[in-house]
Amino acid sequence: MAATAKPMTVKLDDVTRTRLEQLASARRRTPHWMVREAIQQFVEREEKREALRQAAITAWNEYQLTGQHLTMQEADDWLAALETGLDTEPPPCHD
User: Fold this and answer.
1) Using one digit for the tens of pLDDT, what is the confidence trace for 12-51?
2) In angstroms, rounded to a whole number, what is the distance separating the alpha carbons of residues 47 and 41?
3) 23: Cβ–Cβ under 8 A, 6 or more apart, which residues?
4) Does residue 1 register a pLDDT over 90?
5) Which residues, listed in sequence order, are joined to residue 33 by a DSSP beta bridge?
6) What is the largest CA-CA distance in the chain?
7) What is d(CA 94, CA 91) in angstroms, rounded to the nearest whole number?
8) Beta-carbon contacts of residue 67 (< 8 Å; ≥ 6 apart)
């Protein structure tokens, strides 16, 4: 079953609307298509940003509870090994 599209109104100032229309014309797209595409890209980017933010909060909360961590040097050494093609596990966390 396909998702139903529902209209939504967006108010733009005259300058932005003109710019959008000019860009749409140059790209041989409609302003509607340009707005839809921009919103889709924005939502995808912001969902990824929010997921990263939530992961950081979870990691911080876990650190606050356990104190488990890696030093920057340990992380750098592990990443350097991965960069050389060595498939190695991350070092164990410690207090």
Assistant:
1) 999 999 999 999 999 999 999 999 999 999 999 999 999 9
2) 10
3) 34
4) no
5) none
6) 59
7) 9
8) 95
- Least Cα distance to 10 among 28, 29, 30, 32 occurs for 32
Task: Give the number of other CB atoms < 10 A from CB of residue 52.
Answer: 10
Residue 21 has a CB neighbour count (10 Å cut-off) of: 14
Percentage with pLDDT > 70 across the chain: 98
The Cα 1–Cα 90 span in angstroms is: 44
* H or E element at residue 9: none
Q: Which residue's entry shows tokens 């860009």?
A: 23
Tokens representing residue 7 in the block: 């209209």
Supply 38's token pair: 């921009």
Token couple for 42: 């924005």
Query: What's the pLDDT at 92?
Result: 95
Say if residues 71 and 91 touch (Cβ distance below 8 Å). Answer: no
Closest to 20 in 3D by CA, of 32, 8, 11, 7: 32
Residues facing 94 on adjacent strands? 69
